[in-house]
Design a protein that fits this description.
This protein has 111 residues and is mainly alpha-helical. It has helices spanning 2-25, 28-45, 53-58, 61-66, 76-79, 84-110. It starts with a helix and ends with a helix.
């Protein structure tokens, strides 16, 4: 049951993150491309960073989505060292930071 609520929370947070990025970019295609890049590029380019790959694996929103559903036999090198709920908290922090920045940009630009 916690995995269900964790996954629902991650999807809601990623949706709000997409809203914040859309506010920054102000173009639908650019916003969708940026959100997909934010979600996928860290995991694609993580192996290029060598020892930092484990940190990068922990810091992505997709890692927070994978953590609650991972099996217990998954290697820590592949899934990172943070647990499911700290990963979710990290994504929540990203989202709050992005929404705060988007609110500031929206007030300055469209006021």
């Amino acid at each position: 049951m916690p995995a269900l609520f964790g996954n629902a929370a991650v999807f809601a947070l990623v949706g709000a993150l997409g809203l914040a990025i859309g506010t920054f970019v102000r173009h639908p295609a650019g916003a969708v491309t940026t959100v997909i890049a934010v979600l996928l590029l860290p995991s694609l380019f993580g192996p290029l960073f060598g020892d930092l790959q484990r940190w990068i694996a922990d810091a992505t929103p997709t890692a927070a989505l994978e953590k609650p559903t991972q099996t217990s036999d998954a290697a820590p090198d592949t899934v990172g060292s943070l647990g499911a709920w700290p990963s979710l908290a990290l994504v929540a922090a990203y989202t709050v930071l992005a929404l705060t920045g988007a609110a500031v940009v929206l007030r300055r630009r469209d006021a």
